[in-house]
Amino acid sequence: MADLLRIFMTIAENDITVGRCYVTELNQVRRVIEIAGGKVTYEEHTPTSTSGVSLGRSTIGIEHFARQVAREVPCEGAKKGSSAGWT
Questions:
Q1: Distances (CA, A) of 62 to 6, 32, 47, 52
Q2: Quick one: CA torsion of 79, 80, 86, 87, rounded to 10 degrees?
Q3: How does pLDDT run across 32-50, given as a tens digit for each residue?
Q4: How far is Cα 31 from Cα 18, in angstroms, rounded to an integer?
Q5: Are the beta carbons of 52 and 80 closer than 8 angstroms?
Q6: d(Cα 57, Cα 15) in Å, to the nearest integer?
């Protein structure tokens, strides 16, 4: 069953790491803040966010997060001045 789920995930659940950034198919950049109890808390930015402030934090299941993100990206690409201190 795990192999079947892996076919549909772009990122493996065990490859998701606190402090790293991932981009979705909708070009949203998500920085992982915490992983606990099978859930991922992340802060999200989009390229259209001109204020440089995050769009907010969300917590979702790690399997759901893994399905939504396309790949890991450098956190330096996120907007400056966010509450997470991305540079």
A1: 13, 11, 24, 26
A2: 110
A3: 999 999 999 999 987 665 5
A4: 8
A5: yes
A6: 20
